[in-house]
Amino acid sequence: MASSMKLESDFRAEKAEWLKTQMEGLENSKSWKTKCDDVFKLLKYKYHTINKVEAGIDYITSSQMTPCKEGGLVMGSGSYGACQRLSMWKNLKVCVKKVHGKINAKEVKHEAAMLKKLQQSLYVPVLLGINIIQQPFYIVTSFHSATPESSLTLHSALMKCTSIKKEKWMSIFHKCALGLKSLHDLGVIHNDLHQKNILLDRLNGHTHPVIIDFGKACKVGNGRCRKVGDVVMYSELHPWVAPETVRGGQ
Fold first, then answer.
1. Which residue in 22, 77, 78, 174 has its CB near the most CB atoms, within 10 A?
2. Domain at 1-142, CATH from 3.20.20.60, 3.30.450.30, 3.30.450.20, 3.30.200.20
3. Are the C-beta atoms of residues 103 and 43 closer than 8 Å to each other?
4. Which parts form a coiled-coil structure per UniProt (predicted)?
5. CA–CA dist 3, 139 (Å, integer)
6. Taking 80 as the threshold, does the pLDDT of residue 94 lie above it?
């Protein structure tokens, strides 16, 4: 128990240090000191006082984002849409989850609201903002990666990283369990957790899991049962959700 609490404390300090480093990088950039509009954006990022689309959630336009120096990496795609790495405020890498047209604004707001509720967790991305005004709708979060070149899911690591020692895998799985517990402690059920929805990040030389994709998440106690016809319809609308999750099986 004591070791788990120390691990939580260490990761909390590491995440705080990461955010501090990001902000210092922005503040020390010459562009912030020479362009009033960029300074305005920085204040928006710090104090969250303008362009609200929901309580505590900012509206981010596509003009605020540019391709990274390394290029606009497409990190993953599926039935929901695609995730792309872009840059904001000159040097802050972000992940932009663009959804397909069949996913409406209400669903995007729901995912953002679930993610916002979990911002105290050490195991979820930082929510920066959303766009639900014009399509394609998208959610913007912090970018997480084990390497500068690409994003690495737990599934990919299990398939490719065969040289990782057993002790390190046990540490990663232990952190995944702590991450899931942090969601439940904050009153959220993920409802679609699997290896492809866990990213592996690097924090101060340590591998750290980050849980993503909260489109099917709900508050604890808000789960519901479905009739057989509803299950079939739900599966057609959301083909990426695991069948046992749709059925409500154990």
1. 22
2. 3.30.200.20
3. no
4. none
5. 35
6. yes
Most confident of 24-38, 44-58, 115-129: 115-129
Q: Exposure string (b/e) for 202-233, b if CB count within 10 Å is 16 or more?
A: ebeeebbbbbbbbbbbbeeeeeeeeeeeeeee
Residues ≥6 apart with Cβ < 8 Å to 58: 44, 48, 50, 51, 52, 128, 129, 130
Which ranges of the chain does DSSP label H, i.e. alpha helix?
2-27, 30-34, 36-47, 105-117, 154-160, 166-185, 228-237, 243-247
Task: Report the pLDDT value the prediction gives residue 38, as an integer from 0 to 100.
Answer: 42
Q: Are strands 57-58 and 81-88 parallel, antiparallel or unpaired?
A: unpaired
Q: How far is CA 84 from CA 35, 68, 76, in A?
A: 27, 10, 7
Q: Identify the residue with better confidence: 33 or 93.
A: 93
Which pLDDT value is given to residue 33? 35
Bridge partner list, 84? 74, 96
Domain residue extents for the chain: 1-142, 152-245
58 burial (CB, 10 Å; 0-12 / 13-18 / 19+) is buried
Q: Which fold, 152-245?
A: Transferase(Phosphotransferase); domain 1 (1.10.510)
Length of the chain: 250
Q: What are phi and psi of 119, to 5 degrees?
A: -65, -15
Three-state secondary structure readout of 180-199: HHHHHHCCEECCCCCHHHEE
Q: CA-CA distances (angstroms) from residue 202 to 131, 135, 151, 209, 211?
A: 28, 33, 11, 9, 14
Angle at 247 between CA 246 and CA 250, to 5 degrees: 105
